[in-house]
């Protein structure tokens, strides 16, 4: 069977409107396989997605989380009088049994369908102007999910748990399945020399000093949709929405947004921390978050800016050492290039922050106006 016929047959499990005209691969996600479906005039276009089942082991839980999150976001925005909700909240399409995913025997995969958000743009980088708006949008996302009564499952256990990620990494180095560990010894040492510092959040959590809240846990720039004026329309890619440290979304966004180049640029000379983006995003985020963020969470923001390039370096290098089994790659050394890029970014951040520049800037954002 031709691929197109296969996808058509899969799409036909869902209660979509209109007649399908074409199905094409779409986007640059590293995890799922995404296809854009165009339909005849009146009907909306759609996205068909193969869910990466080796990453998301419990698809029923994943799709249940997504139903709860999109339902809650929709109701919150509606209650606040927002309009154009079809472009602001992802809408998943049910099948005939009222489920928002299917298992397809032929492809041995899980699939889901959602409405395509029209006239929206994705970027891999931001300008200082839209970094501010993005900060506001991420804090709004946190605040909208803060009163969600229903509990969410952990779709990837220990997802942002740095202590766990390091153990997983060390195991990969010991197993050395692809015989690559010796060739990246220098990078392994750079990682190990920072391990104690980078696991501070887990210790604070264990001591009851740092809370977890519902977060997105994958706020890279291309998981946001913007309108043509640079306003954030929707936060997408909701697979990892789960309880985590609130600073995850702050730090992970800056990991991609405040790097002068793409996360996989092999030319580490081009990598560097753009403090203008850091400042604009921080101002926007704290403008919205000052209502709910605690002093400890605020104190941890500079830590988060370092943590996410570090965590991503550990994850990319671990995948390289394992023989590239997790992230999609375009060439054999792709994961190594990504890991080197993230280490270069971390070093640039460390240099910028050596005298506490980030904490000083954050303090200027949350300082209350003097009473007059
Ligand atoms: P992955 O988990 O593989 O990153 P995403 O859900 O982020 O998958 O989808 C990949 C890309 O497809 C996104 O970066 C975005 O450009 C685009 N996309 C996903 N969902 C929609 C949608 N509903 N409307 C418009 N574009 C979308
Ligand atoms: C993956 O799905 P995508 O491409 O938006 C990954 C993130 C990483 C990111 C690095 C479920 O995000 O955790 O930060 O790649 N998602 C998962 O680019 O592992
Ligand atoms: Mg994505």
Strand order of the largest sheet: 1-2-3-5-4
The CATH class designation of the largest domain is Alpha Beta
- What count of domains describes the coordinates? 2
Secondary structure tally: strands: 9
Gyration radius, in Å: 21 Å
Order of helices and strands: HEEEHEEHHHHHEEEEHHHHHH
Bound molecules: adenosine-5'-diphosphate, 2-acetamido-2-deoxy-1-O-phosphono-alpha-D-glucopyranose, magnesium ion
Low-confidence stretches: none
Round the mean pLDDT to the nearest integer and report it: 95
Please state the overall shape, judged from the principal axes of the Cα atoms: globular
What's the CATH architecture of the largest domain?
Answer: Alpha-Beta Complex
Strand content: 5-15%
Note the total helix count. 13
Biggest sheet character: 5 strands, antiparallel
CATH topology of the largest domain: Aminoglycoside 3'-phosphotransferase, Chain: A, domain 2
Percent in helix: 40-55%
What structural class should be given to the helix and strand makeup?
alpha+beta
CATH superfamily of the largest domain: Aminoglycoside phosphotransferase (APH), C-terminal lobe
End-to-end gap: 75 Å
Q: Strands, helices and their partners?
A:
Layout: H1 3-11, E1 20-25, E2 33-39, E3 46-51, H2 59-79, E4 102-104, E5 109-115, H3 128-145, H4 162-175, H5 185-193, H6 195-198, H7 200-206, E6 213-215, E7 224-226, E8 232-235, E9 242-244, H8 247-257, H9 275-289, H10 295-299, H11 301-322, H12 334-352, H13 357-366
Antiparallel strand pairs: 1-2, 2-3, 3-5, 4-5, 6-9, 7-8
Helix pairs in contact: 3-9, 4-11, 8-11, 9-13, 11-12
Bound molecules: adenosine-5'-diphosphate (ADP), 2-acetamido-2-deoxy-1-O-phosphono-alpha-D-glucopyranose (GN1) and magnesium ion.
């Amino acid at each position: 069977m031709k691929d197109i016929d296969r996808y058509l047959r899969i799409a036909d499990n869902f209660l979509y409107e209109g007649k399908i005209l074409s199905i094409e691969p779409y986007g640059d996600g590293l995890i799922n396989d995404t296809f854009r479906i165009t339909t005849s005039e009146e009907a909306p276009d759609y996205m068909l997605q193969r869910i990466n089942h080796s990453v998301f082991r419990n698809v029923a839980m994943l799709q249940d989380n997504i139903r709860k999150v999109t339902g809650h976001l929709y109701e919150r925005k509606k209650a606040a009088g927002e309009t154009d909700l079809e472009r602001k909240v992802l809408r998943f399409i049910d099948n005939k049994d009222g489920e928002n995913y299917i298992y397809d025997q032929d492809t041995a995969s899980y699939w889901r369908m959602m409405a395509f958000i029209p006239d929206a743009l994705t970027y891999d980088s931001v300008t200082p102007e839209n970094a501010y708006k993005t900060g506001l949008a991420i804090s709004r996302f946190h605040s909208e999910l803060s009163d969600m009564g229903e509990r969410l499952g952990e779709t990837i256990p220990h997802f942002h748990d740095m202590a766990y990620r390091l153990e997983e990494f060390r195991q990969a180095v010991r197993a050395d399945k692809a015989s690559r560990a010796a060739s990246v010894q220098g990078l392994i040492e750079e990682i190990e020399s920072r391990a104690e510092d980078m696991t501070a959040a887990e210790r604070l959590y264990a001591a009851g000093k740092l809370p977890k809240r519902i977060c997105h846990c994958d706020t890279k720039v291309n998981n946001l949709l913007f309108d043509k004026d640079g306003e954030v329309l929707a936060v997408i890619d909701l697979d990892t929405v789960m309880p985590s440290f609130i600073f995850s979304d702050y730090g992970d966004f800056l990991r991609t947004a405040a790097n002068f180049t793409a996360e996989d640029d092999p030319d580490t000379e081009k990598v560097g921390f753009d403090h203008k983006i850091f400042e604009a995003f921080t101002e926007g985020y704290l403008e919205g978050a000052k209502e709910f963020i605690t002093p400890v969470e605020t104190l941890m923001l500079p830590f988060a800016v370092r943590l996410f390039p570090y965590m991503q370096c550990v994850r990319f290098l671990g995948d390289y050492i394992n023989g590239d089994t997790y992230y999609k790659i375009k060439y054999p050394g792709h994961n190594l290039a990504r890991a080197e890029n993230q280490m270069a970014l971390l070093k640039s951040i460390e240099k910028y922050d050596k005298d506490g520049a980030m904490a000083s800037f954050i303090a200027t954002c949350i300082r209350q106006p003097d009473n007059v």
